[in-house]
TrEMBL record:
Keyword line: Oxidoreductase
Protein name, UniProt field: Aldehyde dehydrogenase domain-containing protein
Residue span, Aldehyde dehydrogenase domain: 24-476
Pfam families: Aldedh
Length: 482
C-alpha cells in the first residue's frame, strides 16, 4: 500500500491524548479481503484503556463545550479540508482494508467529508428559544447543551462515513467521542483521527480504540460519564447495547439492519428503475443497510424489467478494488460470502430461477452479482438481509398487496418505489413504514437529510438539522425574581 502521506497509516491507537500500543502488547492483524494478505496490525485494547479514554474525554469535553460555536466550526472546517486533501490516501486505506472499488472508496471519503462540512456549518445554529413566561417576574429560557461524552461503535461497510456522521455533529455540539471502529477496518478510522488531531480537535476529545469489542462496549455502556451511545451495526448488537445502557439511562442512537423493499410499478420509467436498482442493490457489493433486498415488480412489466436489469448486471465487473473498471469488490469475510450463497441456494431450492450469476468458488470472497427471478415470500432472501450482490425479483399485482408485503418485516430503514403517478407516489411514501423512502430514486443518503429507521432498524437520525439535535439536550431555565 503506497500512501502520499505515509503518516496516515497508523498502527497505534489514539487513546486519551496519546498514540499508544496495547498495555499488554497484543495486536490483531488487518487483512485485505481481496488478497487475504495482512496489511497492518493494530493494538488489542480493552476495558482499562476504554476507561482511561472516557476519563480524559470527560475533562476535555468540559473545556470544548465552553468554546464558541464559531471556534468549533472552524476546527471542523479544517478537518473537512484535511480529509478532502488526503482523500486519495484515505481511499487507498479504505479499499485496502474493506475491498470496495477505489472509485467507490473515493466517493465514500467525499461523502464522509460532507458530514464534517455540514456540521461545521450547523455548529453555529444550535439555537435555543425564549418562551413567553407564565409569571410577570420570570423569564423562560430554553437552551441547547451538549449531551457530554459519547461512545460510538461503527461497522466495516462504510469505514469513514459512519464515523464522521457521528463525530461531525458530536464535536459541533460540544461533545467528546470515544470511538470503537470495526475490527475489519480500523486503518481508515485511525487515519481520520490523525487528521482530526492535525485540524486542532483537542487531544483527548476524540479517542479511537481498536480491540476487544465486548470489553470496550461494556466499559462505554456501564460508564455513568458516557451519556450517549451511537451505534451502527447489526440489530443483535444494537439490542445488546440498548439493554446494557439501561442502568445508566443513556441516550441512544441505533442504526441497525434493514430489509429494503424496492417497488417497480407498471407505470414506472423502467430505465430509471433499473438505474435505481443498480445503485440501491449493487453499491458496495450489496453491503449497505439501505440496500434493496426485495425487488417487487408489477406483473405486466416483470419480463421487460428483468431483461433490462440482466443486461445491466452483466456489465458489472468483479475483482480487486484497485483494478481498473472493477465495480464489485470482494465481500468482507467468509461468513458474509457464505450467507449470500446460502440465500441463493435456498431461493433456487424454493423455485427461484437464476437469470444471471454463477456459483461462488468455495472459500472465495468474490461473489458474482446475481439476478434471481420468481422469488417468493417463503425464501430466506425475503425475510433476512442478504448483504450481498443478489437482486431477487418478486411479482406483485396490486398496490395494497405490495404495501402489505413490503411492511411485513421487523425492519423499517429504507424503502423505494418507482411510479410516474403522483397519487401512487404519495400513497407509497405515506404507507411504507420506513424511516426513509426513495420515490424514483435509488440513492437517498446525503448529509443534508435525516438518515434513520423505525421499528427494529433503530432510533435517532444522522445528518441534517436532526443529526445535530441528537447530540444536544434541551435545558430549561426559569429566571425568577426579576
Ligand atoms: P457485523 O455483523 O456487520 O460485523 P456487528 O454489529 O457485529 O455487525 O458489528 C458492528 C460493530 O459492533 C463493530 O464495531 C463490532 O466490533 C461491534 N461489536 C460487536 N459486538 C459487540 C459487543 N458485544 N459490544 C460492543 N460492540 C460490539
Amino acid at each position: 500500500m503506497k500512501l502520499k502521506d505515509p503518516k496516515l497509516l497508523k498502527q497505534a491507537c489514539y487513546v486519551g491524548s496519546k498514540w499508544s500500543e496495547a498495555l499488554n502488547g497484543q495486536t490483531s492483524p488487518v487483512v485485505n479481503p481481496s488478497t487475504g494478505k495482512v496489511i497492518a496490525s493494530v493494538p488489542v485494547l480493552g476495558r482499562d484503556e476504554a476507561l482511561s479514554a472516557i476519563h480524559t474525554a470527560e475533562l476535555v469535553q468540559k473545556q470544548w463545550q465552553k468554546k464558541t460555536a464559531k471556534h468549533r466550526s472552524q476546527v471542523l472546517r479544517r478537518w473537512f479540508e484535511l480529509v478532502t486533501e488526503h482523500s486519495d490516501d484515505l481511499a487507498t486505506l479504505l479499499t485496502s482494508e474493506q475491498g470496495k472499488p477505489f472509485a467507490e472508496a473515493k466517493g465514500e471519503i467525499a461523502y464522509a467529508a460532507s458530514f464534517i462540512e455540514w456540521f461545521a456549518e450547523e455548529a453555529k445554529r444550535a439555537y435555543g428559544e425564549m418562551i413567553p413566561s407564565h409569571k410577570e417576574d420570570a423569564r423562560i429560557l430554553v437552551s441547547k447543551v451538549p449531551v457530554g461524552v459519547v461512545g460510538a461503535i461503527t461497522p466495516w461497510n462504510f469505514p469513514a462515513a459512519m464515523i464522521t456522521r457521528k463525530c461531525g455533529p458530536a464535536f459541533a455540539a460540544g461533545c467528546a467521542v470515544v470511538l470503537k471502529p470495526a475490527p475489519e477496518t480500523p486503518l481508515t478510522a485511525l487515519a481520520l483521527a490523525e487528521l482530526a488531531e492535525r485540524a486542532g480537535i483537542p487531544q483527548g476529545l476524540f479517542s479511537v480504540l481498536t480491540g476487544d469489542a465486548a470489553a470496550i462496549g461494556s466499559a462505554l455502556t456501564e460508564s455513568a460519564v458516557v451519556r450517549k451511545i451511537s451505534f451502527t451495526g447489526s440489530t443483535a448488537v444494537g439490542k445488546l447495547l440498548m439493554a446494557q445502557s439501561a442502568d445508566t439511562v443513556k441516550k441512544l442512537a441505533l442504526e441497525l439492519g434493514g430489509n429494503a423493499p424496492f417497488i417497480v410499478c407498471d407505470d414506472a420509467d423502467l430505465e430509471a428503475a433499473v438505474n435505481g436498482v443498480m445503485i440501491a442493490k449493487f453499491r458496495n457489493a450489496g453491503q449497505t443497510c439501505v440496500c434493496a433486498n426485495r425487488i417487487y415488480v408489477q406483473n405486466s412489466v416483470y419480463d421487460a424489467f428483468s431483461q433490462l436489469l440482466v443486461e445491466r448486471v452483466s456489465q458489472l465487473k468483479v475483482g480487486d478494488g484497485f483494478a481498473p473498471d472493477v465495480t464489485i469488490g470482494p465481500l468482507i469475510n467468509e461468513a458474509a460470502a457464505s450467507k449470500v450463497q446460502n440465500h441463493v441456494d435456498d431461493a433456487v431450492a424454493k423455485g427461484a430461477v437464476i437469470a444471471h450469476g454463477e456459483p461462488r468458488n468455495e472459500g472465495s470472497l468474490f461473489v458474482a452479482p446475481h439476478v434471481l427471478l420468481e422469488a417468493n415470500d417463503d425464501m430466506l432472501i425475503a425475510t433476512e438481509e442478504t448483504f450481498g450482490p443478489v437482486a431477487a425479483l418478486f411479482r406483485f399485482d396490486d398496490d395494497e398487496d405490495v404495501i402489505g408485503r413490503a411492511n411485513h418485516t421487523e425492519s423499517g430503514l429504507a424503502a423505494y418505489a418507482y411510479t410516474r403517478d403522483l397519487a401512487r407516489a404519495f400513497r407509497f411514501s405515506e404507507s411504507l413504514e420506513y424511516g426513509m423512502v426513495g420515490i424514483n430514486e435509488g440513492l437517498i443518503s446525503t448529509e443534508v437529510a435525516p438518515f434513520g429507521g423505525v421499528k427494529s432498524s433503530g432510533l435517532g437520525r444522522e445528518g441534517a438539522r436532526q443529526g445535530l439535535d441528537d447530540y444536544l439536550e434541551t435545558k430549561y431555565t426559569l429566571m425568577g425574581g426579576l
